[in-house]
C-alpha cells in the first residue's frame, strides 16, 4: 500500500544548522539563514526502502533528529525526496504533476502532533474541510461528517470551537478530519506525543479500532515504544536517516538485532541488571565466573516451568535478578535477567537447553563468583 | 457659537468621515491582496517566488517610507489624472489611499505570519491548492489580526486626513488649523479635537468588537 524505494532527502543549508534545519524540515518559518555562512549539506534520509502492506500498522521509531518527520512527510510529498520513488496504493506520487498530486493526497490522511485544527472553524467545519477542498456539496458533506463524529465519539461537540476542546478531543477531531476523504492510508506524525498517558491510550485504541473496522493502512512515527507496543504490527528503527532494523513487533521485543534496538527496548522495559552487578560484569568468561543472561520467551515457553527444569536437568542454579511479563499484540512475552550459577560446562549446556526450547538468550556478561 | 460655525463643524466632520471611509475601503480592497502576495511569495511559502517577493517588498517599503505630506504634494499630477482636480476632498482621498495600501499590506502580512505553519501543512496534506490554502486557511485564520490591522489603518487615516488641508481637502484637521490655530479660537480647536477623539474611540471599539465576534482563538 505504501512503498518507498531508495528514497533520499538532502538539504542544502546556509548558516546556523539548527535554525536552518527546522525552518526547512518543518515547512515554513522565515528563519533566514546568514548569507555569509558556509552552505551545509544535511542528509536527512539515506536510501530508505520501506513497504507497508494493506491493512498493516507500521511504526517507525527513532530519536529526535533521526529523520522520522522527514520520512513521513516524504510519503505524501510534503517533502519532496531528492532521489528515489514513493508509491501509495499502486500510484507513483513522485512522478505526478501538481494537480494529480493534490488529488492523490485526498487518498492519504494525516494527523499531527499538535493537531493543526483551524481555530476559526468549529468541529463540524474542521472535519468538512477536506471535503470542501474536493468540491463536495454541502448536503453530501453533512452525510459524511456526522457518522465520522460519532465514530470518534464527538457527535455532541459538533458546534464547539477547538479552543474549548481538550488535547485528546482535538486529536479525535483531527482523526475524523483525516478520515473524511475516505483515505486508503493514514499517516500519524507523533500523534500522541503531546498527550498524557491515559489520553494516549484512548487515541491508540481509536486508531487500532479504525485499522480494524476500515482496514486502513497506518504508518506512524513516534519516539515512544509504548505506541509501537500497543498498536503496531511491524516496526522499523530509524537512525541518522537510515532504517537500521525492521521486524514484526513481537520479534523485535523478543530479540532486537541492533544495539539501538536493544537500547530502546531496555529504556522502555527498564529491564537492566542491578547497578552493582553491572559494575562487576566482565566481557569474557573466566575461571570462576557465571554468565548473566537476558532471557526472552514467548508463546508456549511462557507457561512452561523452564527455570525449575533447568535446575533439575542441567544442574544449574538460577538466580533471577529481574523479570516481567508484557503482552504485545496477542502474544505474551516473558523477559528475565538471571544469573546462571554452576560450572562452566553446565552453564553452557543450560544455555543450549534454553535455546532449544525457543528462548532467546543473550549473554550480558560474566560475574566472578567470589567477588 | 454661531450657527454658521456649527455648520462648518458638521461639514468638516462629514468630510473627514468621507475621506477616511473611502480611502479606508479602497486601501483595504487593494492592501489585503497585496499583503497576501507579500506573504505567500516569501521563501518556503505556498507560492514562493523570490523575485516577486523582493519587488513587492521594495515597492511596499517605498510607499511606507515617503512622509505623507510629501507624498500628497508629489503625486498631484497623478491625483489630477485620476479625479480631475488636485484640490478638495476627492483629491485628498488619492494620497490617503496610496499611503494606506502599503500600510495595510504590511499589517496583513504580519497577521498571516501569525498563522501556525502546521495549519498550512495540514491543508497541503489534504490536497489543498495554493488558492484554497489562501482562501480557506490563511485568510480565515488571520481574520482577527487582519481586522485589528484595518482598525489601526482607519485610526491612522483619521490623523493623516488632518493634513489633507494642505491640498484644500477640508475635514476636521483643516478646520482646527484654520479657525482654531490661525484665528486663535480655542473653542473651535477644542471641539474639533474632541470630535476626533470620539471618532477614534468609536472606530477602535467597533474594530475590537468585530475581532472578538469573529475570532475563536
From TrEMBL, chain A:
ABC transporter domain mapped to chain residues: 2-265
Positions of region (Disordered): 1-38
Keywords: Amino-acid transport, ATP-binding, Cell membrane, Membrane, Nucleotide-binding, Translocase, Transport
Role played: Part of the ABC transporter FtsEX involved in cellular division. Important for assembly or stability of the septal ring.
SMART domains: AAA, NIL
GO function terms (MF aspect): ATP binding; ATP hydrolysis activity
Membrane topology: Peripheral membrane protein
Compositional bias ranges of the Basic and acidic residues kind: 27-38
Domain of life: Bacteria
Gene Ontology CC: plasma membrane
Protein name as annotated: Cell division ATP-binding protein FtsE
Pfam families from the UniProt entry: ABC_tran, NIL
Primary gene name: metN
Main location: membrane
PANTHER family referenced in this protein's UniProt entry, alphabetically: AMINO ACID IMPORT ATP-BINDING PROTEIN (PTHR43166), METHIONINE IMPORT ATP-BINDING PROTEIN METN (PTHR43166:SF30)
GO terms of biological process kind: amino acid transport
Assigned protein family: Belongs to the ABC transporter superfamily.
Subcellular location: Cell inner membrane
From TrEMBL, chain B:
PANTHER family (UniProt xref): ABC TRANSPORTER PERMEASE (PTHR30450), D-METHIONINE TRANSPORT SYSTEM PERMEASE PROTEIN METI-RELATED (PTHR30450:SF1)
Listed Gene3D superfamilies: MetI-like
NCBIfam families: PRK10782.1
GO cellular component: plasma membrane
Location of the protein in the cell: Cell membrane
Highest rank taxon of the organism: Bacteria
Topology relative to the membrane: Multi-pass membrane protein
Species annotation: Halomonas heilongjiangensis
Source species taxonomy: Bacteria, Pseudomonadati, Pseudomonadota, Gammaproteobacteria, Oceanospirillales
Segments crossing the lipid bilayer: 16-39, 51-76, 146-167, 187-207
Key words, A-Z: Cell membrane, Membrane, Transmembrane, Transmembrane helix, Transport
Chief location: membrane
Family the entry assigns: Belongs to the binding-protein-dependent transport system permease family. CysTW subfamily.
Protein name: Methionine ABC transporter permease
InterPro entries named among the record's database cross-references: AA_ABC_Transporter_Permease, MetI-like, MetI-like_sf
Amino acid at each position: 500500500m505504501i512503498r518507498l524505494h531508495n528514497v533520499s532527502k538532502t538539504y542544502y543549508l546556509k548558516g546556523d544548522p539548527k535554525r536552518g534545519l527546522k525552518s526547512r524540515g518543518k515547512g515554513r518559518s522565515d528563519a533566514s539563514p546568514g548569507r555569509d555562512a558556509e552552505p551545509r549539506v544535511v542528509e536527512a534520509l539515506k536510501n530508505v526502502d520501506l513497504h507497508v502492506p494493506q491493512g498493516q500498522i507500521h511504526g517507525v521509531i527513532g530519536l529526535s533528529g533521526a529523520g522520522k518527520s522527514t520520512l513521513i512527510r516524504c510519503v505524501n510529498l510534503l517533502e519532496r525526496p531528492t532521489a528515489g520513488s514513493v508509491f501509495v496504493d499502486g500510484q507513483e506520487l513522485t512522478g505526478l504533476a501538481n494537480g494529480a498530486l493534490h488529488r492523490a493526497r485526498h487518498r492519504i490522511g494525516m494527523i499531527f502532533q499538535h493537531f493543526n485544527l483551524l481555530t476559526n472553524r468549529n468541529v463540524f467545519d474542521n472535519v468538512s474541510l477536506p471535503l470542501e477542498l474536493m468540491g463536495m456539496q454541502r448536503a453530501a458533506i453533512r452525510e459524511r461528517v456526522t457518522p465520522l463524529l460519532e465514530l470518534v465519539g464527538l457527535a455532541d461537540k459538533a458546534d464547539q470551537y477547538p479552543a474549548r476542546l481538550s488535547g485528546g478531543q482535538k486529536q479525535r477531531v483531527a482523526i475524523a478530519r483525516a478520515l473524511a476523504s475516505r483515505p486508503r492510508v493514514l499517516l500519524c506524525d507523533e500523534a500522541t506525543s503531546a498527550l498524557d498517558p491515559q489520553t494516549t491510550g484512548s487515541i491508540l485504541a481509536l486508531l487500532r479500532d479504525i485499522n480494524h473496522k476500515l482496514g486502513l493502512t497506518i504508518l506512524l512515527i513516534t519516539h515512544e515504544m509504548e505506541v509501537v507496543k500497543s498498536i503496531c504490527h511491524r516496526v522499523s528503527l530509524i537512525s541518522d536517516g537510515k532504517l537500521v532494523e525492521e521486524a514484526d513487533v513481537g520479534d523485535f521485543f523478543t530479540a532486537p538485532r541492533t544495539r539501538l534496538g536493544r537500547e530502546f527496548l531496555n529504556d522502555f522495559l527498564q529491564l537492566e541488571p542491578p547497578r552493582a552487578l553491572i559494575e562487576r560484569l566482565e566481557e569474557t568468561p573466566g575461571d570462576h565466573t557465571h554468565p548473566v543472561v537476558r532471557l526472552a520467551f514467548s508463546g508456549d515457553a511462557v507457561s512452561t516451568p523452564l527455570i525449575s527444569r533447568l535446575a533439575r536437568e542441567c544442574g544449574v542454579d538460577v538466580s533471577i535478578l529481574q523479570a516481567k511479563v508484557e503482552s504485545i499484540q496477542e502474544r505474551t512475552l516473558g523477559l528475565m535477567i538471571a544469573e546462571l550459577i554452576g560450572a562452566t560446562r553446565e552453564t553452557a549446556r543450560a544455555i543450549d537447553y534454553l535455546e532449544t526450547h525457543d528462548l532467546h538468550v543473550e549473554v550480558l556478561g560474566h560475574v566472578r563468583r567470589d567477588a | 457659537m454661531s450657527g454658521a460655525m456649527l455648520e462648518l463643524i458638521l461639514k468638516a466632520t462629514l468630510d473627514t468621515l468621507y475621506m477616511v471611509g473611502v480611502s479606508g475601503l479602497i486601501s483595504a480592497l487593494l492592501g489585503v491582496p497585496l499583503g497576501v502576495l507579500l506573504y505567500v511569495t516569501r521563501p518556503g511559502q505556498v507560492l514562493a517566488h523570490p523575485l516577486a517577493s523582493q519587488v513587492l517588498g521594495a515597492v511596499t517599503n517605498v510607499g511606507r517610507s515617503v512622509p505623507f505630506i510629501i507624498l500628497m504634494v508629489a503625486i498631484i499630477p497623478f491625483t489630477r489624472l485620476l479625479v480631475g482636480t488636485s484640490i478638495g476632498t476627492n483629491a485628498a482621498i488619492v494620497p490617503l489611499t496610496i499611503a494606506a495600501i502599503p500600510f495595510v499590506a504590511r499589517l496583513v502580512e504580519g497577521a498571516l505570519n501569525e498563522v501556525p505553519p502546521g495549519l498550512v501543512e495540514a491543508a497541503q496534506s489534504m490536497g489543498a491548492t495554493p488558492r484554497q490554502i489562501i482562501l480557506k486557511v490563511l485568510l480565515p485564520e488571520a481574520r482577527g489580526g487582519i481586522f485589528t490591522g484595518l482598525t489601526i489603518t482607519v485610526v491612522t487615516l483619521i490623523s493623516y486626513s488632518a493634513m489633507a488641508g494642505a491640498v484644500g481637502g477640508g475635514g476636521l484637521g483643516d478646520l482646527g488649523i484654520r479657525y482654531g490655530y490661525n484665528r486663535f479660537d480655542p473653542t473651535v480647536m477644542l471641539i474639533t479635537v474632541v470630535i476626533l477623539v470620539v471618532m477614534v474611540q468609536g472606530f477602535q471599539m467597533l474594530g475590537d468588537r468585530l475581532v472578538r465576534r469573529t475570532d475563536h482563538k
